[in-house]
Amino acid sequence: MRGRDEETGDFHGPSRSQKRREALGVLELAEALVALSPAQLSRVPVPESTLPHIEETRRITSNIARKRQLAFLAKQMRKLDEDELQAMRDALDEKSAASRTEVAALHRVEAWRDRLVDGGDAALAEFLDAHPEADRQRLRQLVRNTLEERKRGKPPAAYRELFRELRGTLLPSSTAAVDDLPPDDAEAHDGDE
After folding, report:
1. Both ends of the chain: CA-CA distance in Å?
2. Which residue in 67, 73, 103, 139 is a FRET match for 191, CA 20 to 30 A apart?
3. Cα torsion 34, 37, 40, 43: sign
């Protein structure tokens, strides 16, 4: 039992509910670490003693056994210092913020692609005013080819190539290995330019 300090009336330690909330927080952290790819995990400051448990949890495919192993991983992680756990949480938060920024940038590229295809020469002129380094002739050719593909019902090769060209212009430092993303709510991102 926790008990109270007789002089001040304060509790001696955290409540059972507080301990449970902290344990569930560590379990969520463990789930997030297991969900990361090996390359992403290498960027998170995970102690060497925890890495084998993470790998073991990834290897297990049976739901019940995986849940049990995940609980064991969380138990092992609760033995770590709070500073180490917070460092892992901070690294995951930075990763998710960077991911959201990258996704937003790709949505802007998609929005421009759709505007160029749907807007014709006026949209192309607007894009070239904003980005004079872009290759006018190449973009115009890709837009024409995209429209022709749509008309003939062909696979969207030029549509994807237009995306890559725009991504190279709008995000020159991007090293994304994404060839193309399906247009998700591109209209919602029209005001992002």
Report:
1. 59
2. 139
3. positive
